């Protein structure tokens, strides 16, 4: 099948493109490269031996979307393109609502004109908000406390549910990611945010590489076993494979359906740092700092639905995630 991947040059998108190509699908990437490098397309080709069609454009651009759907018979869309920084979204909420919602609406309208009826959406565990019990289950209410980024995910899920209700035969698979980390075993693909990383693993990797002097652990006075926050970290390659299962599901079902993509296990900040040092043999100096506003003490996924309905289960270990994060940073340093 031919799959349009918006944001396909990004961290999760590029790993998903690799898995799609290696599974025999054709891939068309739409990415404006606002938060990714064009060299990722070359790396996807190096890994798979196949070069996806690539359009450098904004996913809101109806003319480009129409060009893509006219030039290619797209069987399904995987929609990653969007702004994704929780803190930034609090400062520029209109940009987040405009970008994340308009790109989704534009895609759905072009899909309708082209007769494309399968949509896989990059959602987030953030939609569960601060008050749901742990582990999160897909039937729980979704609402977000304070960040517009999270609200865009809740709103887009609702847009997709309403559209599916009004459009018999359309499928929307809502994939709620927990904390994806790691990189491709080749070392060619990984999490390479612009500037100083907001997220834990890329920050750890850059400290290990000597690019940042130390890690600040945001609080060790949480109600958790070691006082640091606990998250459900999953390997980005496992997450990418979950998208292939979602596409298979979309080919056989209609309507909107949400799935948690996590491991079902929580790992603390200190545990992740220590596992990284053990797995790589590299020291990661750290200090304990104040809590980061908005952080929840702990969250992890109930994975029963993805395991039983999608037939997907994360397989890689936390040590694998650490080693592959480190391999990526080392390969970037060599370039
Ligand atoms: C993990 C833990 C921090 C950096 C975010 C988004 C979420 C999703 C995944 C998009 C927390 C601690 C971090 C640092 C630290 N993204 N930390 N020092 O916040 O769970 O989730 O990314 O969907 O929407 O909210 O991930 O990696 O930022 O933080 O101590 O320098 O690491 O306090 O406890 P988070 P994270």
Folded structure, characterized:
It is a single chain. By secondary structure, the chain is of the alpha/beta class. Helix content is 42%, strand content 17%. It contains eleven helices and 13 strands. The protein has helices spanning 11-22, 39-48, 62-71, 86-91, 93-114, 148-166, 200-208, 236-252, 269-280, 304-310, 318-334; strands at residues 2-6, 26-30, 53-55, 76-79, 118-124, 171-177, 179-181, 215-218, 230-231, 233-235, 255-261, 267-268, 286-289. It has a seven-stranded parallel sheet with strand order 3-2-1-4-5-6-11, with helices on both faces. β1 (2-6), α1 (11-22) and β2 (26-30) form a beta-alpha-beta unit. α1 (11-22) packs across α8. The longest helix has 22 residues, at 93-114. The radius of gyration is 19 Å and the shape is globular. The two termini are 34 Å apart. 50% of the residues are buried. The structure holds UDP-4-deoxy-4-formamido-beta-L-arabinopyranose. The site of UDP-4-deoxy-4-formamido-beta-L-arabinopyranose has 19 residues, from α7 and β8.
């Amino acid at each position: 099948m031919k799959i349009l991947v918006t944001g396909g040059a990004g961290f999760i998108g590029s790993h998903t493109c690799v898995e799609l190509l290696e599974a025999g699908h054709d891939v068309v990437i739409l990415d404006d490269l606002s938060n990714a490098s064009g060299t990722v397309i070359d790396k996807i080709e190096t890994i798979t031996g196949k070069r996806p069609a690539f359009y450098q454009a904004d996913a809101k651009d109806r003319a480009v979307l129409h060009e893509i759907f006219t030039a290619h018979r797209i069987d399904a869309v995987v929609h990653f393109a969007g702004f994704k920084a929780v803190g930034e979204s609090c400062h520029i909420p209109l940009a987040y609502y405009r970008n994340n919602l308009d790109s989704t609406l534009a895609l759905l309208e072009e899909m309708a004109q082209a007769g494309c009826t399968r949509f896989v959406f990059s959602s987030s565990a953030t939609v569960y908000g601060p008050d749901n019990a742990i582990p999160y289950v897909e039937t729980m209410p979704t609402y977000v406390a304070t960040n517009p980024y999270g609200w865009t995910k809740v709103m887009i899920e609702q847009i997709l549910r309403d559209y599916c209700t009004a459009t018999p035969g359309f499928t929307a698979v809502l994939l709620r990611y927990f904390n994806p980390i790691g990189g491709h075993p080749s070392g060619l693909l990984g999490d390479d945010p612009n500037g100083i990383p907001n997220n834990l693993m890329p920050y750890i990797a850059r400290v290990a590489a000597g690019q940042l002097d130390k890690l600040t652990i945001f609080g060790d006075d949480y109600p958790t076993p070691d006082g640091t926050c606990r998250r459900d970290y999953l390997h980005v390659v496992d997450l990418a494979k979950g998208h292939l299962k979602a596409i298979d599901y979309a080919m056989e079902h209609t309507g909107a359906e949400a799935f948690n993509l996590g491991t079902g296990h929580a790992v603390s900040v200190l545990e992740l740092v220590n596992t990284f040092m053990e797995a790589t043999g590299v020291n990661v100096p750290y200090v304990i700092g104040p809590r980061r506003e908005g952080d929840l003490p702990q969250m992890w996924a109930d994975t029963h639905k993805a395991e039983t309905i999608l037939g997907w289960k994360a397989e890689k270990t936390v040590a694998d995630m650490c080693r592959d994060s480190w391999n990526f940073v080392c390969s970037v340093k060599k370039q």
